[in-house]
Design brief:
Chain lengths: 114, 113
Amino acid sequence: QKEVEQNSGPLSVPEGAIASLNCTYSDRGSQSFFWYRQYSGKSPELIMSIYSNGDKEDGRFTAQLNKASQYVSLLIRDSQPSDSATYLCAVYNPSGAGSYQLTFGKGTKLSVIP
Amino acid sequence: EAGVTQFPSHSVIEKGQTVTLRCDPISGHDNLYWYRRVMGKEIKFLLHFVKESKQDESGMPNNRFLAERTGGTYSTLKVQPAELEDSGVYFCASSQAGVYEQYFGPGTRLTVT
């Protein structure tokens, strides 16, 4: 069974610090990795996607992927109180059915303290 | 560009009743997905449409759930008859053809009493 694991948190960081969110996945065939941000009662918002080993940067966000270790992380630099949300890790593993279904972790709740 | 929309935002029904959820994907997105999150659990895949065809319905819990996407535009998810364990938030997402990045709607919170 495909699994995606995240520390549920809450993860508390002071404003201006770097927040580090981690995710591990069980299926070695996984190809694509996504980070979603979800504010309470709102829809998951796609903030980062990463497909290759290494780092991908977009503004204050950096996604890191290590397929050998089956590990993906999200770094948020200069954390702001508005970054306080639940961050969901999602993984795509191709199946013979041609489905694009994502497997999600339970999410990590981030709290940025002013 | 309008995002994914879902209706209703919240539905409260009694056990044994029927409920129909609607999703309007982003215009031009061929792929449409339904996911569900039950209390305390992760978001789980239900099914995937490509245009009007069901590409993968492996996540549908049982035959009380029926999804349709007539004409390849909006989709409906019907639960009949509803059971207590069907309570949760039902999300719809869409993506462009050949693209894995999925954009989610606000969800429908279903409460079965």
